[in-house]
Design brief:
Number of strands: 16
Number of helices: 13
Structural class: alpha/beta
Bound molecules: zinc ion
Low-confidence stretches: none
Shape: globular
Helix content: 40-55%
Mean pLDDT: 92
Strand order of the largest sheet: 6-5-4-7-11
């Protein structure tokens, strides 16, 4: 159990303030009474904190709710105009940059296709920087009002002593992405693996809400995942936990982009699915090519067989997660995960059932993500938001 340090009055005030802010951020509109119930703070403490947040303009009154017999209660919410966060999704098929207000409403976005297979570091850095200028320009929002930029990247992210990206499948070896961006922008920057940022978005706002133990699976060109254990993301010793794409589903099987053989990604990633179909595609074309394959399954026996086999492999991979981790929910997302899941969810569930132990399978639901393919960028934008809500970040002004 975490030992609670003897806090000063100032620490206590900051904790109370963070509790109220988190509650308003995740649940949007609440009355002071709701906040007291949700946070366990006394009515007087909530009143004090709310007064401070109203004075600072972080929180606003957003309307009134009827209360039983009493006078109407003022509803409070985050002030969307107080500050902004930017989320960047460096995917394998595109770079997406989105700007959100404090209620996580999207205010502007920019997208750039990535081609060819191999990520060129300079291209990605230029796309991110162009995207930051584009969303600030389009929204007319001042640079100084941006609380921070979160960047979701495929691969393993080493945070210290400096941010390094290890993207073994696409040729990034210890790329100092933080330093490369920092040379051109002074906005506060945060980095995490894209599957982990997507996982955070689905857990906070989407299909993961209310779950404490879950796995969020991201399927794009490759396959990644985020493990949520007891409400927090499991990182492992060096932040590489949940590389689901590289669990072996066929010993001695197809060659994987990582150099090994028989990995799940070598069967269920979009790039591998298209190769198995005999239509290898550059990254920029994979999204439409996979959609065409799925459409063709009604008339093409080959397309139908490839999809059936893909569902089998995905189900087997998910069964390994269920047997190892005993999650209450498995969520399928990523652009390819949403396309495949939309068509094959029943088959994937059936394969997972066949390959799982009965008891943990009965405790698990397998669902589609609710936030669409933009979930990685939305989740990346929650990285600076976390710091802001915890009180360690003010507006840049
Ligand atoms: Zn692999």
């Amino acid at each position: 159990m975490r030992e609670r340090k003897r806090g000063t009055v100032r620490d206590l005030r900051r904790e109370n303030r963070a509790a109220v802010l988190w509650s308003l951020y995740l649940r949007q509109r609440r009355s002071r009474q709701d906040l007291s119930t949700a946070t366990g703070l006394s009515a007087a403490s909530v009143t004090n904190v709310v007064r401070e947040l109203l004075d600072e303009g972080i929180v606003i009154e957003t309307g009134q709710a009827d209360s039983d017999g009493g006078r109407p209660r003022a509803l409070l919410g985050m002030n969307p105009e107080y500050g902004y966060v930017i989320g960047v999704d460096v995917g394998e098929t595109r770079t997406r940059v989105e700007l959100f207000d404090l209620t996580m409403t999207e205010r502007a976005k920019a997208e750039y296709p990535l081609d060819p297979y191999k990520h060129d570091v300079d291209v990605v850095v230029a796309q991110i920087l162009t995207g930051l200028d584009a969303v600030l320009g389009d929204s007319g929002i001042d640079h100084a009002a941006v609380l921070g930029v979160g960047v979701g990247v495929p691969g393993i992210i080493e945070q210290r002593p400096e941010v390094l990206v290890h993207g073994q499948t696409y040729g990034w070896d210890a790329v100092p992405l933080g330093r490369l961006l920092r040379a051109h922008t002074d906005l506060p920057l945060y980095f995490d693996n894209g599957a982990k940022t997507m996982g955070q978005a689905e857990m906070w706002f989407g299909a993961g809400r209310g779950a404490r133990n879950a796995v969020v699976v991201l399927i794009g060109s490759g396959v990644g995942a985020s493990l949520i254990s007891g409400g927090t993301t499991y990182q492992g010793a060096t932040s590489s936990a949940a590389e689901l794409g590289h669990i072996v589903v066929v010993v001695g099987g197809r060659k994987c982009r990582c150099g090994s053989t028989g990995c799940l990604e070598a069967y269920a990633g979009a790039e591998a699915i298209l190769e198995r179909y005999g239509r290898p595609m550059a990254a920029a074309d994979q999204e439409s090519a996979l959609a065409e394959l799925i459409d063709a399954a009604g008339t093409s026996a080959l397309a139908a067989a490839i999809l059936e086999e893909t569902a089998q492999f995905l189900g087997a991979g998910i069964a390994s997660l269920i047997n190892l981790l005993n999650p209450e929910r498995v969520i399928l997302g990523g652009w390819a995960g949403l396309q495949l899941g939309g068509r094959l969810l029943a088959e994937i569930r059936e394969s997972a059932r066949q390959h799982s132990l009965r008891h943990p399978f009965a405790a698990t639901s397998i669902e589609l993500g609710q936030l669409g393919p933009g979930a990685v960028a939305l989740g990346a934008a929650t990285l600076p938001m976390e710091s802001f809500l915890n009180g360690s970040l003010g507006p840049a002004a």
